[in-house]
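Whiteboard transcription, Tuesday session. T.W. wrote the structure tokens on the left side:
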């Protein structure tokens, strides 16, 4: 048997708790360990009079059973005072049950201004003021439960209760409109258990509307007919068109059940598109189709071609946050860099147009305004060239029925000539297209992975630019949701949002820097689930857990703590082997040492940064000529090693042979300096920290 629900340590305010439902709530909370503020003005059911007796009596009942309670006699229109009573007495507020109510039964024609206003002041305004007073306290303590008490009169309407119905959208208030035997069956004790469960920390319900009575509980939701579009482009919309399609407008066959403003607006967005495209008067696009989505499995899309240059690689790198402010970013931003590379996650770009091609697959009958990008998997088989023409072949791997929607798994293989470069799996969710009787799971889906049960091994925080979405869209995702404020507002967002694949690119960059030294040949694959949107200008926080060659990641918005990418991971190759030739060393033995230094920085970079806090430059010569330059950054982030020169605190110039003798302990650095074999430019005192870099962490 499950453990009983308790509220030990919780503080509950119940308004209108002097009798009826409110009293039952207060007693039940008190019996289960909560400290209770019993609020009641002490008036009659019409709002007249005032007395402390009702609240005091309930407090006495709670205390008599060993509970904790205090009375409050203020009107709910003085919400701050009610909450202050909780804070002064018990130090916090966890739960607010807005229950206070009065009744002024009148037919609509006989309802006076005072009747109308008084009902709304208590039921609506009172609930608002009490809730507002508690809100920030709950937000700061990261816990809170708020219950709004409604009535069937508010849901369905009732004769003689127009004001009450409007205010509520029971208790002793039912006595004036129900027969005694029915009132008896609607005991308050049959309602309180639902309220207690909704308020418990184990309950995750939010925004629900419930009808309860006589021991029965049901959840309500809105239903909408499929409707009809009754206007055409460049033509006036007429009442005659409404009249002629009225039966279809009111037909609830295959009705939809939008659960949010965003879902509701999806249809309007599609209607605008259909009218603009002159597709004429159509039934609501969410109408059920006789097609079978499962028949789409195995269908292929026409082969896609994608031609790009180094400019596209650079534009993508900028779009996912790379900057010339960071020296180790230059290899992705400057085509003249000796190690100029294309970021691995650019691999989604040649494949992303396959999603728009889904509309041509028989059986799917997609409404693209309802398409959400749920998950993404990318696997690299060799580093991407920095220019060329690629071809992609897409196949519908599976179609899943999730009830509230349909999931399509789209596999895309991208080739350079006959050579396979990368594989993408797009997992897209079509809201409202479920219920066709298909399977719910698929072995073809690349699975996400749970996070290790420990604090992250590394964290990188990076602020996105206000123009991040505007920049990223130039890589090919032209959805106006990411640039047009009015379009974003139609989707329920306060401003344009960042592309999910942009956050995907940020997180991959962070792992590539932290654990692969920005070596693209070590990148094998990445899997993410998209959770919440990011607004340009917010900071992305990538948390990383290293387990062998798999880096588990979770990406959050730093300012809100909201998770952006979940169940995510990146797999790395143990060495730079992804079909690439071994690195050219020009016969330099020092390359092996710097490679090992790079490995140590990846594994222990944060510790090295704390010990060293400096940037070292190295110029390695052979036969009297400088043939290699290295920069060891042990000052910023978790450290990095890169080929090439960058601004350094101290720069050393030495031959390959002498460098190896210093590392192996055969040549004393001071003797090498005075003999002219080792030249130092910059802060010479930092030379003392070389031992930490070379001796302790470059063992061969």
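and on the right, the sequence the group agreed on:
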């Amino acid at each position: 048997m499950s453990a009983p629900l308790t509220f030990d340590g919780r503080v509950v305010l119940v308004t209108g708790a002097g009798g009826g439902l409110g009293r039952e709530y207060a007693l039940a909370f008190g019996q289960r360990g909560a400290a209770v503020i019993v609020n009641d003005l002490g008036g009659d059911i019409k709002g007249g009079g005032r007395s402390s007796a009702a609240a005091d009596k309930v407090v006495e009942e709670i205390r008599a059973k060993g509970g904790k309670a205090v009375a409050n006699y203020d009107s709910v229109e003085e919400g701050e005072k009610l909450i202050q009573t909780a804070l002064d007495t018990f130090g916090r507020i966890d739960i607010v049950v807005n229950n206070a109510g009065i009744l002024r039964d009148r037919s609509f024609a006989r309802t006076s201004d005072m009747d109308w206003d008084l009902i709304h002041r208590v039921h609506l305004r009172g609930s608002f003021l009490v809730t507002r007073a508690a809100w920030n306290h709950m937000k700061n303590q990261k816990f809170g439960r708020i219950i709004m008490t409604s009535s069937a009169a508010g849901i369905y309407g009732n004769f003689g209760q127009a004001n009450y119905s409007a205010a509520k959208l029971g208790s002793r208030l039912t006595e004036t409109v129900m027969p005694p035997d029915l009132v008896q069956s609607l005991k308050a004790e049959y309602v309180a258990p639902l309220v207690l469960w909704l308020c418990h920390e184990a309950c995750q319900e939010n925004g629900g509307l419930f009808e309860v009575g006589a021991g029965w509980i049901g959840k309500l939701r809105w239903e909408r007919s499929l409707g009809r579009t009754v206007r055409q482009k460049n033509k006036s919309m007429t009442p005659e068109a409404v009249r002629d399609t009225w039966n279809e407008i009111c037909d609830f066959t295959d009705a939809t059940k939008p659960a949010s403003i965003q879902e509701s607006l999806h249809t309007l967005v599609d209607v605008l598109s259909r009218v603009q495209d002159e597709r004429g008067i159509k039934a609501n696009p969410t109408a059920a189709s006789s097609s079978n989505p499962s028949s789409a499995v195995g269908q292929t899309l026409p082969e896609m071609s994608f031609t790009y240059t180094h400019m596209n690689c650079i534009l993508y790198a900028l779009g996912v946050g790379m900057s010339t402010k960071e020296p180790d970013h230059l290899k992705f931003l400057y085509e003249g860099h000796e190690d100029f590379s294309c970021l691995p996650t650019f691999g989604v770009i040649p494949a992303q147009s396959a999603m728009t091609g889904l509309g041509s697959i028989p059986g799917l009958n997609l409404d693209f305004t309802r398409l959400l990008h749920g998950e993404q998997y990318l696997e690299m088989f060799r580093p991407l060239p920095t220019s060329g023409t690629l071809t992609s072949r897409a196949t519908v791997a599976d179609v899943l029925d999730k009830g509230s929607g349909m999931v399509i798994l789209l596999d895309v293989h991208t080739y350079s000539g006959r050579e396979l470069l990368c594989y993408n799996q797009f997992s897209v969710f079509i809201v409202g297209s479920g219920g066709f009787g298909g399977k719910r799971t698929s072995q073809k889906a690349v699975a996400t992975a749970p996070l290790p049960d420990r604090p992250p091994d590394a964290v990188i925080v990076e602020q996105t630019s206000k123009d991040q979405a505007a920049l990223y869209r130039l890589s090919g995702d032209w959805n106006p949701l990411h640039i047009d404020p009015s379009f974003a507002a139609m989707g329920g967002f306060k401003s344009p949002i960042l592309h999910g694949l942009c956050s995907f690119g940020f997180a991959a960059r962070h792992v590539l820097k932290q654990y692969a030294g920005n070596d693209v040949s070590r990148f094998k694959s990445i899997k993410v689930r998209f959770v919440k949107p990011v607004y340009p200008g917010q900071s992305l926080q990538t948390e990383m857990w290293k387990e062998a060659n798999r880096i588990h990641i979770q990406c959050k918005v730093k300012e809100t703590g909201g998770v952006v990418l979940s169940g995510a991971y990146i797999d790395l190759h143990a060495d730079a082997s992804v079909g690439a030739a071994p690195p050219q060393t020009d016969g330099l033995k020092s390359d092996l040492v710097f490679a090992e230094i790079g490995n140590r920085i990846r594994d222990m970079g944060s510790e090295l940064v704390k010990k060293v806090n400096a940037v070292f430059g190295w110029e390695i010569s052979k036969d009297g000529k400088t043939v290699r330059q290295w920069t060891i950054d042990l000052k910023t982030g978790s450290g990095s090693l890169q080929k090439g020169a960058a601004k350094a605190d101290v720069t050393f110039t030495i031959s390959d042979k002498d460098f190896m003798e210093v590392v192996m302990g055969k040549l004393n650095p001071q003797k090498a300096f005075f003999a002219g074999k080792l030249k130092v430019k910059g802060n010479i005192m930092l030379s003392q920290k070389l031992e930490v870099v070379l001796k302790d962490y470059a063992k061969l």
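Someone added at the bottom: The longest helix spans residues 113-141.
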